[in-house]
């Protein structure tokens, strides 16, 4: 894995915290997706939303555009995403990558709370987007080179 020239320029994360959930646990789950070395500088933003039945939903967000933080998060993903999930990302990359070269990944919120980075395309997730600064046709090779996905 070579993460020297990581072609990701920003990372965003968001998760919904429903009225039945503990906001601090949702924030902990999100923090567990980033390396400890940058956790102390993290600033959450929150939007208060209203659910269909009038229930409060908090949209919790994180955004990283600092080159060092982005590099460390990508390295953390590469180290902590399982080989099976890396193969799944490889197989589903075309569905996850939009026209703006943004890769959409969803991590299981409960697993993240327990320190495990596990893909989950259900509803109880932390949504992560990686904005690439290369052409769309080059993203797959870039992801393989840095160790984020695996075709093996």
Main features:
50s Ribosomal Protein L5, Chain: A, alpha+beta, 6 helices, 38% helix, 5 strands, 152 residues, five-stranded antiparallel sheet
Structural commentary:
By secondary structure, the protein is an alpha+beta fold. It has a single domain, classed as 50s Ribosomal Protein L5, Chain: A (2-Layer Sandwich), CATH 3.30.1440. The chain is built from six helices and five strands. The chain has helices spanning 23-31, 36-39, 67-80, 83-96, 109-113, 136-146; strands at residues 8-18, 45-50, 56-64, 102-108, 125-132. The protein has a five-stranded antiparallel β-sheet with strand order 2-3-1-5-4. Strand 2 (45-50) and strand 3 form a beta hairpin. The longest helix is centred in the middle third of the chain and has 14 residues, at 67-80. The chain is globular, with a radius of gyration of 15 Å.
Helix and strand content put the structural class at alpha+beta
State the distance separating the first and last CA atoms. Answer: 14 Å
Task: Please summarize the sheet with the most strands.
Answer: 5 strands, antiparallel
CATH architecture: 2-Layer Sandwich
The number of distinct β-strands equals 5
Please state the average pLDDT score.
Answer: 95
Q: What share of residues are in beta strands?
A: 25-35%
Helix content: 25-40%
Alpha plus pi helix count: 6
> What is the top-level CATH class?
Alpha Beta
| CATH homologous group name | Ribosomal protein L5
Examine the coordinates and then state which fold CATH places here, giving the name of the CATH topology. 50s Ribosomal Protein L5, Chain: A
Low-pLDDT runs of 5+ residues are none
Reading the helices and strands in chain order gives: EHHEEHHEHEH
Q: How many structural domains in the coordinates?
A: 1
Widest β-sheet, arrangement of strands? 2-3-1-5-4
Radius of gyration computed on alpha carbons = 15 Å
Shape: globular
């Amino acid at each position: 894995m070579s993460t020297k020239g990581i072609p990701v320029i920003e990372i965003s994360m968001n998760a919904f915290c429903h009225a039945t959930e503990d906001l601090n646990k949702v924030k902990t789950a999100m923090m567990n997706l980033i390396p400890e070395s940058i956790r102390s500088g993290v600033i959450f933003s929150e939007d208060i939303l209203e659910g269909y039945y009038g229930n409060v939903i908090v949209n919790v967000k994180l955004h990283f555009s600092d080159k060092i933080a982005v590099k460390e998060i990508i390295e953390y993903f590469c180290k902590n995403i399982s080989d099976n999930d890396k193969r799944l990302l490889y197989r589903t990359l075309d569905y996850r990558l939009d026209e703006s070269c943004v890769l959409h990944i969803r991590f299981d919120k409960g697993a993240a709370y327990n320190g495990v980075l596990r893909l989950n395309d259900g509803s109880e997730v932390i949504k992560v987007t990686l904005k690439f600064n290369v052409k769309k046709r080059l993203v797959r090779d870039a992801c393989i080179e840095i160790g984020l996905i695996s075709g093996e």
